[in-house]
Amino acid sequence: MSTTLPGTAVILAAGQGQRLRSELSDRPKGFLQLGQRPIIEESILRLLATGIGDILIVTGYLADHYEALARAYPGRLRTVHNPQFAASGSMYSLYCARELVEGPFLLLESDLIYEPRALRLLLDGPAEDAILVSGPTGAGDEVYVEAPGGRLHAMSKDRAQLGAAVLGELVGISRISAALFALMQRIAAEAFTRSLRFDYETDCLVAAARERPIHCLLAEGLLWGEIDDPSQLQRARGGLHARIAALDAGVHPGVAPCDH
């Protein structure tokens, strides 16, 4: 079965980064800088290098930083604001993008560092709905993915709550078809009648997987990290980001932003 390749990426960037306040007193989490550019701009350059030409950032906390970044990438970077960012979960942020996204898209989080291979694995794979899973990282705060037969069944930070078919750790990069996004919106709209604190992965994707197969793609040896607390930041600074940067240099040396 042929599938339509995503030409759009959605980056969820509304969070306040409360566990990193000592590092981020005046910036949102995506503007952590471990190299020459903020980590979200590194992600944007990776996406552009794969041929993704339309990137939508869902903003919230200190949104003006992302608005300024969008002006540096005219025609390639857009923003939409989640006005309820302080009182909602990640699925509400994604829900805010529903009228601005047509067709399939890649879904990412703003606090990730990852090697370019992560994107290619999802784009080159045959599954139109897929989440990326890695082997053990020891990073702390992992989300484990239970996937019997390679299909999403459950996720939890408590591995003991899952069955025997734990495939690995959730990376936070997914490929979402238009049909899956429509299903997620329907599930979310009902959940929002009770609370806006509903997350796209552990809540919505797991619920959607009961109605539609979602492939779990294991990326062995993948270099990646989420930066959500001081220990994860230390891990990134301890060599992980440098190793990823070395791979970046070989993948998108010719991709550059417009003048800031």
Topology:
Blueprint: E1 8-13, H1 39-49, E2 54-59, H2 64-72, E3 77-81, H3 90-95, E4 105-109, E5 112-114, H4 117-124, E6 130-134, E7 144-146, E8 154-156, E9 166-176, H5 178-191, H6 200-208, E10 215-219, E11 224-226, H7 230-251
Parallel strand pairs: 1-2, 1-4, 2-3, 6-10
Antiparallel strand pairs: 4-9, 5-11, 6-9, 7-8, 7-9
Helix pairs in contact: 5-6
Summarize the structure in words:
- The chain is α/β, with parallel strands linked by helices.
- The chain has one domain: Spore Coat Polysaccharide Biosynthesis Protein SpsA, Chain A, CATH 3.90.550.10.
- Helix content is 30%, strand content 21%.
- The strands form 2 sheets. Strands 1, 2, 3, 4, 6, 7, 8, 9 and 10 form a 9-stranded mixed β-sheet that branches. A two-stranded antiparallel sheet has the order 5-11.
- α1 (39-49) links the parallel β1 (8-13) and β2 (54-59).
- It starts with 7 loop residues before the first strand and ends in a 9-residue tail after the last helix.
Kindly report the average pLDDT value: 93
Give the low-pLDDT segments: none
Strand content: 15-25%
* Number of discrete helical segments: 7
Q: Give the helix/strand class.
A: alpha/beta
CATH architecture: Alpha-Beta Complex
Using the coordinates above, name the CATH class: Alpha Beta
Features of this protein?
260 residues; alpha/beta; Spore Coat Polysaccharide Biosynthesis Protein SpsA, Chain A; 9-stranded mixed sheet; two-stranded antiparallel sheet; 11 strands; globular
Summarize the structure.
The chain has 260 residues and is of the alpha/beta class. The protein has one domain (8-251): Spore Coat Polysaccharide Biosynthesis Protein SpsA, Chain A (Alpha-Beta Complex). The protein has helices spanning 39-49, 64-72, 90-95, 117-124, 178-191, 200-208, 230-251, and strands at residues 8-13, 54-59, 77-81, 105-109, 112-114, 130-134, 144-146, 154-156, 166-176, 215-219, 224-226.
